[in-house]
Amino acid sequence: MYAYIVQDALQWNSELGAYDASHGIGSPENIVNVANAKVEAGSTDAVFGSQLWDTISTDIINSINIIRC
Question: DSSP label at 48?
Fold first, then answer.
């Protein structure tokens, strides 16, 4: 059972200097059910695409509203 846990775990890859989700098959895999990160000054959390999209969309809408004024 221990072998399966190690095989399925997110392992540190010393060659990449990062955690590797490929599980030794060489292709990237998804990591799901992770909470949103803090998007604020000083945060070192990983940010998701949806958080970036929301931020960029809000900035664009605010810029358009400023131009309209």
Answer: -
DSSP assignment string, 12-38 = EETTTTEEE-STTSSS-----S-PPPP
> For the segment 28-41, what is each residue's pLDDT rounded down to a tens digit?
788 888 888 888 89
What domain range includes position 62? 34-69
Same domain? 1 vs 28: yes
pTM of the model: 0.43
Under DSSP, is residue 59 helix (H, G, I), strand (E, B) or coil? Answer: helix
Closest CA to 68 of 13, 20, 60, 11: 60
